């Protein structure tokens, strides 16, 4: 299976499909933004099912890590992983501003790094800074094009921030593009990183911050990460690898989706539905992101 070719074709498809949606939606002409009914609920289910599924093989990597650390009972992985998730949630409740800043920084680096692994990135000084700057587009773009709505989401997450200066955001956007360009020139990707960058930017121009993030997270980042996992499961046959991935990912995906739904149900006793969903989406993703990245780091370190 040619993983590079699949990722390249997918980037091209997503770019042109995105352009087609933007230029054919009547709402774009009238309001400069594509309006989606029940967007919060739709985004919630997409993130809960498609978005989190790309980390649904963490338990298999955890089993390998248990062997490395000579822990006999491989199922000991689950309480450790769950404890890390709870720790992040409690940290967010106690120190929401610091938690949000850390989440945005870690997520930006994670997005920039994972989305760059479709090419053959050479070792380069400050590569982690370049990953951070490249992935920061996911944070900068909604702040630039939908400032008020993005800050409202932060308020729902218990963080009040002043609007960033437009010139600062424009400069940050340019820096993100330069970082993406530098990474692009040190891979064999043939320039389709540029298509991804433009696609992410256009998401945030024509969609609300929540919708833009959901489309990116589910259909670009998660799908691409899943391609890599499918390739690890079966390097010769994509279809067989996909079937294996779906079977292995299903249990944790279902468990996570159920936990998300239960969390929303509980929070609706204290908040309106949309606010409860936004809290679960972003704080829930933060609680999964930190242990997911830690696991990836430990596995990668021990493989080396």
Topology diagram in text:
Layout: H1 3-24, H2 26-31, H3 39-53, H4 58-68, H5 77-94, H6 96-114, H7 127-135, H8 137-145, H9 147-156, H10 166-185, H11 192-206, H12 209-233, H13 238-267, H14 273-303
Helix pairs in contact: 1-11, 1-12, 3-12, 3-13, 3-14, 4-14, 5-6, 5-14, 6-7, 6-14, 7-10, 8-9, 8-10, 8-11, 10-11, 11-12, 12-13, 13-14
Question: What do you see in this structure?
Answer:
Helix 3 packs parallel to helix 12 (209-233) and helix 5 (77-94) crosses helix 6. The chain has one domain (3-95, 152-158, 189-303). The mean pLDDT is 86. The radius of gyration is 19 Å and the shape is globular. It is built from 14 helices and no strands. It is an all-alpha fold and 304 residues long.
Summary tags:
about 300 residues; mainly alpha; globular
Low-pLDDT stretches are none
Overall helicity: over 70%
Overall structural class, as computed from helix and strand content, comes to: mainly alpha
Number of domains: 1
Describe what is shown at a glance.
This protein is mostly helical and 304 residues long. 79% of the residues lie in helices and 0% in strands.
